Structure of Argininosuccinate lyase:
Amino acid sequence: QGNQQWGGRYSAGPSAIMEAINASIGFDRKMWRQDIRGSLAHAAMLRHVGIISADDEAAIREGLSAIGTEIESGEFPFSEALEDIHMNIEARLTERVGEAGKRLHTARSRNDQVALDVRLWVRDAIDGLDGQLADLMRALTERADEHAATVMPGFTHLQPAQPTTLGHHLLAYVEMLGRDRSRLGDCRARMNESPLGAAALCGTGFNIDRHMTAAALGFDGPTRNSLDSVASRDFALEFLAALSICATHLSRFAEEIVLWTNPYFGFVKLSDAYTTGSSIMPQKRNPDAAELVRAKVGRVSGALIGLMTVMKGLPLTYGKDMQEDKEGIFDAAETMALALAATAGMVRDMKPDTARLREAAGAGFSTATDLADWLVRELRLPFRDAHHVTGRLVAKAEARGVDLSGLSLEELQAEEPRIHSGIFHVLSVEASVASRTSYGGTAPVNVRRMAAEWRERLA
Ligand code: ARG
């Protein structure tokens, strides 16, 4: 038997393998809400311009609403043979309301329909993820304010560099996530045009009102070129690119949690809620959630590369290749929702060991820069000379097995006779962080001010 939708031309059905490779209903059913929303707007417009009657529109509206209820309650008879969500809903509509259902597809193609549905889905996903990003940023800001003066080691090359504060470190991620939000916002603004009405590829001879459907669906206006409308998925690429960058940020933070919870670091502890034990080693406490967040970036940037590869070299306009856009988009968005939730959970859960952080902050001659800066300020040494003197003092302290404040005044003066006891004030980690008051610097007063600014912005 022929196909319900194109049975006129066809006398035989597809092979089982054709059906298996062709069908997308297994995954694109996720877009059912968007598909119904689009059809409602399309039907209202068709009636407005006089293409269908008010009775037809009412029947379509009722039918689609009933279908929504069926899908929600799990009673909708999804069919592989009907390929995708668009034809499943349309066929069911006709089953329920007859003739009127058959008129819905006037001046529309699945090509503009799917372009619309994916846009609506991505736009909804952006709005959801934006809320989650804001929540994570709020969690980080709260903890940053709480630990504005908690000194910890700052690293470069993962080697002790200078003392910083936990608050400053957490606010660094707030900055990154703020840019991630702004990237998603840019993507949303650029993609917010309606492709509905481009029809198959060339537009239509019916007197449709694309401005009306665009407005009804919350778009800034209709897209300007029908070919571009059905051929383009760069809005999805941009979405996946923004998510990939965000996932990279989460991965870096997750890696730090993995390091920090390692007993050799001992910087923070996670509770039972965000760790797992081992089935064989009774002492274990593994940071699985952090490890998984660290790894999730693989699927998200995988989705980006996947879709870029699908779109590359694809001649205009629509090609069935583009059906491959959906699983990556859905998976990336859902993965990010979970990763953001897990990260926010860990941020609220983690218990910093402030004594251990302070001890580590002073290790590795981390105040050597402060010492060199003191020589410049107090003795007017050129910075390069101060760097050399300090380097010799670090070597001396290392040989003696003490830190810089463990050297006596005589030992210091042996390298530079003008050094006086004032120098000991700058060798503590507290003095070091407090001194870094340059804009954006690590000083606790700065951190408190920045945390307050972020709190206000995120309110
Ligand atoms: N399931 C298709 C997709 O995801 C819908 C569009 C199909 N259009 C067509 N002309 N075969 O892209």
Observations:
- The two ends are 60 Å apart (CA to CA).
- The pocket of arginine is lined by residues 24, 28, 84, 110-111, 114, 318, 320, 322-323 (CB under 6 Å).
